Amino acid sequence: MLDFAAAQPVGEIVARFPAASRVFARHSIDFCCGGRKPLEAACSERGLAADVLLGELREEATRSSGEEVRDWTEAPLAQLVGHILVRYHAPLRAELPRLDALAGRAHAAHGDGTLAPFSAIAAQLGALRAELEDHMQKEEIVLFPAVKRLERTALDGSAAIDPLCGSIAYPIRAMVHEHVEAAGHLAELRRLTDGYRIPDGACGTVISLIAGLEELESELHRHIHLENEILFPRAEKLAQSQRHPEEATL
């Protein structure tokens, strides 16, 4: 039976128990870019009692006990990269243009009237789309292949290589910074839509747009968490062990 503690970082909790993301999402607790924060501190910021949230996490663990969940903290890094590409990158490339088109139609039909500030929503979404598409391309062309080369080097026992002519920590740091920027756009979209509230009298386009934005936030939080809290730390640890083989046995 999984158990949780108030001193645990929220990102670590989700890494070991992915269904915890449901609990944190209900309470707007950031488990991706804010994943290093202890549960107790995250609760305090939201005005929540840590004991109450711990109870909810234990209830969720009981409900989810029959679900088959892959432990990505132990899986081969190449498999984790493949999972990210299929589960998050490919759907995101399809969803972003769809939401962009919906935002454009909503603005054309309603302007910035009583329903929502659609021009600001479209601008935020457009900026987020441009950043994410560029971000994913950099991961797929540079960082992810480097991670897989590091793992192959460790597995076949070949001489340690530096796949990026420097430290893999530098591109990882850049990707984490871009994750923070993406999270900022998501927070602004949440604000502009009043917490993704469907306005009274909303047409199908507006309903689809706001529901899609809420789902985009949920998916991106899981996506960013998987990279920030599992893939990147594991890759950096592997790179460090290859630069200093004697440290791997300590």
Key descriptive features of the protein:
single chain, 250 residues, mainly alpha, 0% strand, globular
- Average of pLDDT: 86
User: For the CA atoms, what is the radius of gyration?
Assistant: 20 Å
**Termini Cα gap:** 30 Å
Going by helix content, strand content and strand pairing, the class is mainly alpha
How much of the sequence lies in strands comes to under 5%
Q: Uncertain regions: pLDDT < 50 for 5+ in a row?
A: 245-250
Q: Estimate the helix proportion, in percent.
A: 55-70%
With helices defined by DSSP (H or I, 4 residues minimum), what is the helix count? 8
- Tell me the total number of β-strands: 0
Order of helices and strands: HHHHHHHH
Largest sheet: none
- Which geometry do the CA atoms define? globular
Write the layout of secondary structure elements.
Elements: H1 10-16, H2 20-26, H3 39-46, H4 50-63, H5 77-110, H6 118-156, H7 169-192, H8 204-243
Structure commentary:
- The structure is a single chain.
- The protein is mainly alpha-helical and 250 residues long.
- 69% of the residues lie in helices and 0% in strands.
- It contains 8 helices and no strands.
- The chain has helices at 10-16, 20-26, 39-46, 50-63, 77-110, 118-156, 169-192, 204-243.
- Helix 5 (77-110) runs antiparallel to helix 6 (118-156), helix 5 (77-110) runs antiparallel to helix 8 (204-243) and helix 7 (169-192) packs antiparallel against helix 8 (204-243).
- The protein is globular, with a radius of gyration of 20 Å.
- The two termini are 30 Å apart.
